[in-house]
Specification:
The complex is a heterodimer of chains A (about 270) and B (about 100).
Chain A: H1 3-24, H2 31-50, H3 58-78, H4 84-109, H5 116-143, H6 155-173, H7 179-197, H8 205-227, H9 230-253, H10 258-263
Helix pairs in contact in A: 1-2, 1-9, 4-5, 4-7, 4-8, 5-6, 5-7, 5-8, 6-7, 8-9
Chain B: H1 3-20, H2 29-39, H3 44-51, H4 57-90
Classes of the chains: A mainly alpha (about 270), B mainly alpha (about 100).
């Protein structure tokens, strides 16, 4: 068995543990253990990836991980119980940001010259990742009450903002190798994320965060297709799909529909929560 | 791996994801969201895979940030979920919410 086979097997172990962990998170009695199972699965996936041939620049990896631990652990430890939703929003946001950055580097590394089966998932990952990053940060600011509502985004503006990154992505997919266009995709998708979340009231924010959580999962799955990495594909898609179902259930529990939350605007918020 | 195999895996994972969340008690919505949030921190793998072959300061710089972001997502995500669920344990005396 080659080293690559072992890595692939470890990935299978890892995503089996993600699925088991998610199943256990459904019930109050098994939830704590479920979270731990998923965390061990993640450790296995990371370990297997580090063993991959060609993985290197250890100094930079250590720097990146050290920064992540130095920021993530104290933040998770010290956050007040009442501030949990905005903490989740922030963690979700950085996940989306990571996807967006990875997509830029993929594009830049190839000088923009990529086969369609890599380019299209990268463009998808860039758009969704950027929406998730900026949207989640706004969700955080609003829940933390650092930003007050009031600004109402007309539907037409949202529609235009949604059309811009898609149009730019089509230009790149059609053959443009412009890096500037790629950055503009990230910027315009970010603007969409901001303007879509700004008008939404605090009571509806958990549904928004859950939606963006599913988005980040989808973007991670797309990045996985581009990188030929099964662990990313499976874990990302699991979150994308289960996050969508969860969003629907959360909205139902508050007597709201997802469409209501995103498009009803200010002043109608707070159906139940 | 060829694209169609990857698409097959993608579609199957989507169905598993849809099925794995059946009826969840309302109190577990936020921890479950937080748990799935930690799982998509797996994007950190993308940064780890790309940083070795990456050339140029900007690419490396962006990937260090990506790895830091991914690590925050994973480590913070699992820790916060654990803390939320720890809160549940204290209130264990309450009647079980499982159907």
């Amino acid at each position: 068995m080659s080293r690559n086979d072992v890595i692939q097997l470890l990935y299978i172990v890892a995503f089996s543990m993600f699925i088991t962990g998610l199943r256990m998170l459904r019930g109050p009695r098994t939830a704590v253990r479920g979270n731990q199972v998923a965390a061990v699965g993640m450790a296995i996936a990371v370990g297997a990836t580090l063993a991959q041939p060609g993985v290197g620049d250890w100094l930079l990896i250590v720097i990146g991980v050290a920064i992540g631990v130095a920021v993530g652990v104290p933040a998770a430890r010290s956050v007040k119980m009442t501030a949990m939703p905005q903490m989740v929003a922030l963690f979700n946001g950085v996940g989306g940001g990571a996807v967006a950055l990875i997509s830029v580097v993929e594009f830049r590394g190839a000088g923009g010259d990529l086969p369609a089966q890599e380019l299209i998932p990268i463009l998808f990952a860039a758009i969704i990742g950027s929406i998730s990053f900026w949207g989640s940060n706004i969700a955080f600011l609003k829940l933390q009450e650092l930003m007050k509502g009031g600004l109402k985004t007309p539907k037409a503006v949202t529609a235009v903002l949604a059309a811009i990154p898609v149009a730019l992505a089509i230009v790149i997919a059609a053959g443009s190798e412009s890096e500037l266009l790629f950055w503009l995709i990230l910027l315009s998708a970010g603007a969409l994320g901001i303007f879509a979340v700004v008008p939404i009231g605090g009571a509806d924010m958990p549904v928004v965060i859950s939606t963006l959580n599913a988005f980040t999962g989808l973007s991670a799955a797309a990045a996985g297709v581009a990188l030929d990495n099964t662990a990313l594909i499976v874990a990302g898609m699991l979150v994308g799909a289960s996050g969508t179902i969860l969003t629907k259930q959360m909205a139902e529990a508050m007597n709201r529909s997802i469409g209501n939350v995103f498009f009803a605007g200010v002043g109608t918020g707070g159906g139940g929560a | 791996m060829d694209l169609l195999t990857e698409l097959a895996i993608l579609v199957l994972a989507a169905f598993v994801g849809f099925e794995v969340i059946s009826k969840v008690p309302n109190t577990l919505h936020t921890p479950l969201m937080s748990g799935t949030n930690a799982i998509h921190g797996i994007v950190v793998l993308g940064g780890l895979l790309l940083i070795g072959p990456a050339e140029g300061f900007l690419n490396e710089f962006l990937l260090v940030i990506a790895i830091a972001f991914g690590t925050i997502n994973v480590v913070g995500g699992f820790l916060v979920t654990d803390r939320m669920l720890g809160m549940f344990k204290d209130k264990k005396k309450k009647p079980e919410l499982e159907e």
